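Quick review question:
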């Protein structure tokens, strides 16, 4: 029996190895719900890049699908709230697709963040933002919220400009230079998600 097996027990070592070998589940969360939004285009682009990596299971999560009520306006028993929390519970990490509205994130994304608590805790997240200034101000607001929810946000942050990465502000045509940033961001999300998963066991 090896040193680690003697120290921790063979069952603990096997469980640790199983966790290491299992692919992580990372949700790409679309942060806008308005009609005519471009976040699905950006989300699909990120997922296409991510799927080529083969290092995790990536899934697009659309807030629209859950029909979430505004926090505090109902008794909280809507099935969408339970489904939202269940989905988040099954994810190990996140990539937020963030739009800038009045120097911050959308109300729909803030509401979705507020309608869960423990399901966010001890997980990692990356941010891909867009707007007239690359969505940088919205991303910085989001970082403060993520800290309160015990989500570790990674450093690399792809920023997309409405002027240079979109045609007529509606058709997404990203510059090639963003590819490396997205991959570096995903490197960090996967690494941190794997590390933080051990805290949730």
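Suggested answer, residue by residue:
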């Amino acid at each position: 029996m090896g040193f680690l097996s003697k120290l921790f027990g063979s069952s603990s070592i096997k469980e640790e190895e199983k966790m290491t070998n299992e692919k992580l589940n990372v949700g790409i969360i679309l942060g806008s719900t308005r009609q005519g939004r471009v976040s699905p285009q950006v989300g699909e682009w990120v997922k296409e890049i991510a799927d080529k990596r083969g290092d995790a299971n990536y899934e697009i999560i659309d807030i629209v699908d859950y029909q979430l009520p505004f926090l505090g306006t109902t008794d909280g028993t809507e099935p969408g709230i339970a489904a939202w929390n269940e989905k988040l519970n099954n994810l190990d990490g996140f990539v937020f697709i963030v739009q800038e509205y009045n120097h911050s994130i959308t109300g729909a994304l803030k509401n979705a963040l507020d309608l869960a608590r423990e399901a966010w805790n001890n997980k990692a997240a990356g941010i891909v933002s867009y707007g007239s200034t690359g969505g940088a101000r919205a991303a910085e607001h989001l970082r403060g919220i993520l800290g309160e929810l015990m989500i570790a946000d990674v450093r690399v942050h792809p920023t997309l400009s409405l002027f240079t990465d979109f045609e007529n502000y509606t058709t997404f045509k990203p510059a090639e230079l963003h590819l490396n940033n997205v991959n570096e961001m995903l490197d960090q999300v996967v690494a941190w998600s794997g590390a933080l998963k051990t805290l949730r066991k």
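Why it works: Residues 178-197 form the longest helix (20 residues). Residues 12 and 100 are 45 Å apart (CA to CA).
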